[in-house]
Design goal:
The chain has about 325 residues and is an alpha+beta fold. The protein has 12 helices and 10 strands. It binds 3,4-dihydroxyphenylalanine. 3,4-dihydroxyphenylalanine binds near residues 165 and 291.
Length: about 325
């Protein structure tokens, strides 16, 4: 019995000092292993006097059970600690972080801004909720004018609308500043359109306006040509077609050829005298050109995208490509 007690004490003394898996393994070998002290003691049973043999045997069984149970717990403890220590393994390769990127439309808008900025244009801003006056009236589109039918307007209330184009920013700038003016105004516009591959109830335009003492249509063509080359490369071509807008005379639309196809990207023209009159600029002294370019159109042409809705669905598989 003394022998059993001794083994037990020795085991617990050593177990106390176990900190890692190596020490744990040593403890197991020394006490519970094939040649360990407990096994050894079992081998002694046959040498013990027969009258105390059963008691000794029972004591040993009890010891073995106790040590094994304790050992099992100790093992869990040591392994748990080891796992804790492993958690912040700084040598492991990091998880990839997806940082995101700018929306393709914002990227194109930035490029457009940079190009016109380098041509000496200022960058202006205007409200998306506009009055009938700025959106239509001042742009030579009176209430009864059939041209209003060209734009399916979203009305907020009587005279307040979601702007159908960026052209009202022309008026706001000319009210505040006298020529020479050379500006662009990028932003979102709204129309009561049913979404399909080429229509969205909101889209983006960049308005352009240049006013001075001898501004001509040739200046407009030159600037648009230079813009197309900067945006699409030297192979890009521009063609102007006659068109109609109430706020320009003459009016045009222009297309850009890039990547094997023509795409209409903008309306344009020479600022109508009535528009100058509505902001108190003398049409006898000044002339100007204006354009309203579809930013979404430019992006569709540049990235060869065939459905405008892709820009607004926010599917990251689409957005990550840019
Ligand atoms: N505002 C026109 C539209 O949204 C586009 C436009 C045409 C703008 C001619 C202009 C312009 O500044 O001169 O359809």
């Amino acid at each position: 019995m003394e022998k059993i007690e001794k083994i037990k004490q020795a085991y617990f003394r050593l177990a106390e000092e176990v900190n890692n898996s190596e020490q744990l393994e040593q403890l197991r070998i020394e006490f519970l292993g094939r040649k360990g002290r407990v096994t050894e003691a079992f081998a002694m049973i046959k040498d013990v006097a027969p009258d105390i043999r059963p008691k000794f045997g029972a004591g040993l069984n009890q010891l073995k059970k106790e040590l094994e149970q304790h050992f099992k717990k100790l093992k869990e403890e040591v392994e748990g600690q080891a796992a804790d220590q492993k958690a912040p393994d700084v040598t492991m390769p990091g998880r990839p972080v997806f940082a995101g990127n700018r929306h393709p439309l914002l990227k194109i808008a930035d490029e457009i801004k940079n190009i016109f900025h380098s041509f000496g244009f200022t960058i202006e801003d205007g409200p998306e909720i506009e009055t009938d006056y700025y959106n239509f009236e001042a742009l030579n589109i009176p209430k009864s004018h059939p041209a209003r039918a060209m734009q399916d307007t979203l009305y907020i209330s009587g005279d307040v609308v979601l702007r159908t184009h960026t052209s009202p920013v022309q008026i706001r700038v000319m009210e505040e500043r006298k020529p020479p003016i050379r500006m662009i105004a990028p932003g979102r516009v709204y129309r009561r359109d049913t979404p399909d591959a080429t229509h969205s109830p909101f889209f983006h335009q960049v308005e352009g306006l240049v006013v001075g003492e001898s501004v001509t249509f040739a200046d407009l063509k030159g600037v648009i040509q230079a813009f197309a080359h900067r945006m699409f490369g030297k192979d890009a071509r521009v063609r102007f077609r006659p068109s109609f807008f109430p706020f320009t005379e003459p009016s045009a639309e222009y297309d850009v050829w890039f990547n094997g196809r023509w795409m209409e990207i903008s309306g344009a023209g020479m600022v109508h005298p009535n528009v100058f009159r509505s902001v108190g600029i003398d049409p006898e002294k000044y002339s100007g050109y204006a354009f309203g370019m579809g930013i979404d159109r430019v992006a569709m042409l540049k990235y060869d995208i065939r459905d405008i809705r892709l820009f607004f669905e926010n599917d990251v598989r689409f957005l990550r490509q840019f």
